[in-house]
Amino acid sequence: MLEIENLTHIYGGGGPSAHHAIDQLNLSVAEGELLCIVGPSGCGKSTLLRSIAGLITPTGGRIKVDGELVRQTPDNLAVVFQDYSRSLFPWMSVADNVALPLRRKNMDKKRRREAAAEALESVGLSGAGRKYPFQLSGGMQQRVAIARALAYRPTLMLMDEPFGSVDAQTREDLEDLVLKVRGHHKMTIVLITHDIDESVYVGDRVVVLSKAPAHVVADLQVDLPSPRDQINTREHPDFVHLRAEVGRLVRGQPVAH
Amino acid sequence: MNAPVLTRSPLARPRSSRWARRVTGALAFAALVEIAGRAGLAEFLPPASEILQRAAALLFDEGFRAHAGTSVLAWAIGLAVAALVAVPLGVLFGSVPVIDAATRAIVEFLRPIPSVALIPLVALLIGTGLQLRVTLVIYAAVWPILYNTMYGLRGVDPVARESLRSYGFGRLSVLWWVSLPSAAPFIMTGFRLATGVALILTVSTEIVAGRGEGIGVFIYFAGIAVPARMDDILAGVVWVGLFGVVVNALLVAAERRLFRWHHTRVGGGS
Q1: What keywords tag this UniProt record (chain A) (predicted)?
Q2: Cα torsion angle, A101, A102, A105, A107, sign
Q3: 20 to 30 A Cα–Cα from B186, which one of A3, A4, A136, B218?
């Protein structure tokens, strides 16, 4: 589904102020997988995501989505950004926000509206369509951003620290929302986070990146029973073990066995 | 189904108290002028009641109405043309850095020239008719619109633009769906500032030209009459000021209504 080969990105073109964000990163994600990428702050996670989305052109390496080399934004890809207050359009109603990307899909107005209503319902916001983003709480705004991605029916959904700006309770609700919607929509999800617990709780697989320039330090399979549950999963011995292991890897400490 | 929640902008104070304060201020000022006029503090200054009476009387004066109509026409044409020129230019400069850099020197040279200083030059070139006023109004009104449009476009949130780009929207689509709506409140503010500048230019051009029709011409003739008609001068000024205040108030109201999302955000959220 997603293949990344020797991805390298240097900002600022080799001058003295150049920043080497990613170095020779290799990664592949299977169809339908939910991959979490964790790494220390400023390690180039967002650069990686923006490269996959075709928003920036990496200085080296190749990215393929569905076997196609990424040159521009791939079709059937949706991104959920961390900052919902900036990624939603405040001048549009919630329903219009969700429906706007569907203009790319040759859908008439009626079908766009139906798809938006359906997506809003699937994130628990049916009835909020006529409101404006500023009239909703932060958690609800991020639900709208997720609904916008879902309505687009992407085969690959990228999430850039999607729950980084909401409180803990809302965060757990949104984590469960992602787990729920991936069951309904067949899609591959790549979720970037700096929250170690979150990566283990949500992911089928956790990839740990090094400090910048980022490369893959570890690639761990998460074999926790499903469906996951905020209380039971988090006290599961495998969860506790795995979060410790990921934590050490992120901090660059040797892994104890 | 929830009804949409109507949150009041944090900028909005209770309307009645705001108006009460404004009216009180205006009345106090009028009272001062009245006292100064009656006390003969300045022999040229008629009391406020006399000025306002004259202003009201002018409303029924066909000659004055013709003067006013000509001024408003020049003002409106000039503003409309300025907006048609400045908004596209501002969008271009604000979204294409190369063009912005290439034109910056000339823009920075022209901008500080007071438009009023151009009146004699332009009058020599094109005469003193309606075209003179319209030309100068366009010139003066272009700047605030151009600058605010550029400022608005440069300030478009890159995350908002990337959000749409990530769904495969091209440059022009992003401009249409994100950059323009996001810059719209700034463009509107620029236009509102331009209405005031345009009014100043209309009247001052008329005064300098000193012929034809227009409120400025009316004021000019009242000034050179022997003896000078101070009540006419000030009554004319009252009408110009009133016009400016009303236009500004209407546009502020329109901004609040159209760009509630913007004011809520700038005002620190709901």
Answers
A1: ATP-binding, Nucleotide-binding, Transport
A2: negative
A3: A136
